[in-house]
Design a protein that fits this description.
Blueprint (H helix, E strand, L loop, with lengths): L2 E5 H14 L5 E5 L1 H6 L2 H11 L3 E4 L2 H9 L6 E3 L7 H6 L3 E4 L2 H14 L4 E6 L14 H8 L4 E7 L12 H20 L5 E3 L3 H6 L7 E4 L10 H4 L6 E6 L2 E5 L4 E2 L5 E2 L4 E6 L17 E4 L2 E6 L7 E4 L10 E5 L5 H6 L5 H7 L5 E5 L1
Parallel strand pairs: 1-19, 2-3, 2-9, 3-4, 4-5, 5-6, 6-7, 7-8
Antiparallel strand pairs: 1-10, 10-18, 11-14, 12-13, 14-17, 15-16, 16-17
């Protein structure tokens, strides 16, 4: 019915392209949060471990637990640990990225209570994204906390707010300079020398000179880096298809979908597809804002996207019930599909629901 095909050979290709941009000693932190961007986190993590990444990264402890339970051995960073889930980190050997004073103090207390020492942690700084992270002004306090602590500081990092913007972007330059200042403070203020990392996928393509000790790549592994000239070097990892479940004719003036969402300007042929906003194809893709491919011809959505169905106008397209419908693949990419609805590939990929069958292909 609805199928997301995951092409492992494309993942391998993307990994090699990314590695070719990295210095030999730069570590590869592969980001597999949100079920590996809506694909299959366990399968992808195992493949990346096999390819030789240095570490994996997830958003929350529960995601790391799933990977450990599946047999993943390499380090797993948890970007946004929550205080109520700190014990899960210890139980499954996950490495927290500490981003606030409350979180640091709570984790330190838990380690001391459990009498655990030299536990690997990472310190996250906010240098301009203004999401989570310590401020530069908190550095003296952090350096004090890290002395004689139960922590092993493995890395210090930050995140660029607009890594795909042209390199003369003043805000990115400001963030880079702030991070260089932080790096110097840590090198002078601590006996142990942590690693430093700043770049995500598009950051590596745009600022390879600032890769420092590690790079965090997620979406690039799936074939997207937010700029056409960069994307051309990669291969989209996933393709989404469905099948026509019914075809019917509507007369001029007939309505299609909830709330009379579309009025036929002339006689038209409509195909129903068994996929909807419960599967991740949101209502913002309705009313012609997305197109699917049927026999290499484009068919626009009509009316509102339903929970379990959507309708497309196939007037003039030779097809039948049961024929395959392509939402995105290696030629009609998720970027192109997303563009019509003014969204991005990240949202399209990570929104895909569990009812869509994942098929692993070599």
């Amino acid at each position: 019915m609805n199928t997301l095909r995951l092409h492992l050979s494309h993942l391998d290709h993307n990994y090699k392209v990314i590695r070719s941009l990295m210095n030999p000693n730069t570590e590869f932190i592969a980001v597999v949060k949100a079920n590996a961007y809506g694909s299959n986190a366990v399968v992808i993590a195992k493949q990346l471990e096999k390819l030789g990444v240095n570490a994996l990264a997830v958003a929350y402890a529960q995601e790391g637990k799933i990977l450990r339970t599946a047999g993943i051995k390499i380090p797993i960073l948890v970007f946004y640990p929550q205080i109520e889930g700190l014990s899960t980190l210890l139980e499954f050997g996950l490495e927290p990225c500490l981003y606030s004073a409350n979180l640091l103090i709570a984790f330190r207390s838990l380690l001391e209570k459990r009498q655990q020492d030299s536990y690997s942690v990472h310190i996250k700084y906010n240098t301009g994204l203004n999401r989570v992270g310590f401020t530069q002004e908190q550095t003296p306090w952090l350096l004090e906390q890290l002395q004689e602590s139960p922590f092993h500081l493995k890395s210090v990092y930050s995140h660029l707010a607009a890594s795909e913007v042209d390199k003369d972007d003043p805000l990115s330059k400001k963030q880079i300079q702030a991070f260089l200042s932080l790096k110097k403070q840590y090198e002078l203020g601590l006996n142990e020398k942590p690693k430093f990392h700043l770049l995500n996928s598009s950051g590596l393509f745009n600022y390879p000179e600032y890769q420092f000790d590690a790079v965090r790549c997620g979406i690039a592994l799936h074939g997207y880096v937010n700029k056409k000239m960069w994307d051309q070097k990669l291969k989209p990892f996933a393709s989404l298809t469905s099948k026509i479940c019914q075809i019917h004719q509507v007369k001029k003036g007939d309505f299609v979908g909830y709330n009379h969402g579309w009025k036929a300007p002339k006689e038209a042929t409509i195909a129903c597809l068994p996929i909807g906003h419960a599967d991740g194809i949101g209502r913002h893709f309705g009313h012609g804002k997305a197109q699917v491919s049927i026999g290499n011809k484009k068919a626009p959505t009509v009316g509102n996207i339903c929970m379990d169905m959507l309708m497309v106008d196939i007037s003039g397209i030779k097809c039948k019930e049961g024929d395959e419908v392509v939402f995105f693949d290696k030629s009609a990419t998720a970027n192109l599909f997303a563009k019509g609805a003014a969204t991005i590939s990240y949202e399209v990929l990570t929104s895909l629901g569990n009812r869509i069958e994942r098929i692993i292909e070599p």
